[in-house]
Request: fold
Amino acid sequence: MIPYGRQSISEEDIAQVVAVLRSDFLTQGPMVGQFERQVAQDCRAGHAVAVNSGTSALHIACLALGLGPGDWLWTSPISFVASANCGLYCGASVDFVDIDPATGNMDVSLLEEKLAQAAKQGRLPKILVPVHFAGQPCEMEKIHQLGQRYGFRIIEDASHASGAWYQNTPVGSCTYGDMTVFSFHPVKIVTSAEGGMVLTNDSTLATKLRMLASHGITRDATLLSDHHQGLWYYEQQGLGFNYRLSDVHAALGLSQWTKVSAFVARRNALAGAYDSAFARLGVEVLAQQPNRVNSYHLYVIKMPPAAAALRRQAYDALRAAGVGVNVHYIPIHCQPFYRQLGFKPGDFPQAEQFYVRALTLPLFAALTDEEQNQVIAQVERVLCPG
Reply:
């Protein structure tokens, strides 16, 4: 089976992890800081805070901005549930903005319409979480302009977009948002096995993030209320969580991060080969927008509208042929839990139509040309018979 995604672990990665296992530190040691500084530097951000998952990163990013009961968080319905759950963790209410079916990203024109209506109703969001679906950055400049007009804060969910670029600037620079979140799950661009990171240019937010990720505790002498204690002294100044990343994970993440540009380049080369093949076959793919570099976490094709009901047959046939296709994503508002909150099918029709047509093909840095040719041949056999 050729999987839809897979990590690429080198002997160098293994050696870096083994070196930490043989060191004095396994949990909170020097590797975490090195990982944070390298990612911040490469993304041109002021601060980076490593945590144990992308979900944890989203949670503390919301908390750092003061999201709580009575507030609203808006995000995309085409994403993993964590993009919305982070708002509920804070006691806030969650809503969605429908997508542009050409890209799978949040439709900025629909966002603008929804904001105008919400302003009249006094229900504007406190936080917007645009999701860079499949690795293609959203229209962040326009989203930023709307944030300035309507007063909401922006957390970029770049879980798919490590190594992507927007308008000649790396995703993670926070040029058009307050914070950016990365995920380092094994199927993502780079991995730390499990892990995540929040980037920001705001030092006050960075301080809050660090405390929230470590039980609300600080040892920073400049923040302590009692400066006369010994070196053992620490203070819990708020309610935080144990979301810390270990040195073992950070060592893998840092080693992987040094190859992020190479991984993205390979993914783009593979995506280009898919594009050429599917243009010849008449298979529809996601539209690519100008002035950005897609990191291609996912490669999604779309079943013809008239044949959308056959997606399950295509899925089963391709997997039977050894092509590990997947589907991204079941719209969040259609999940049973979110239906209990009052959402229902039909609320976000573009997302729902996108879901029934979408099929994710294998794409990862270690995918060989031969394996990709097998995928293309099987897609042609299943979707373009005769």
In short: The first strand starts at residue 47 and ends at 51. The two ends are 25 Å apart (CA to CA). The mean pLDDT is 96. The chain is about 40% helix and 15% strand.
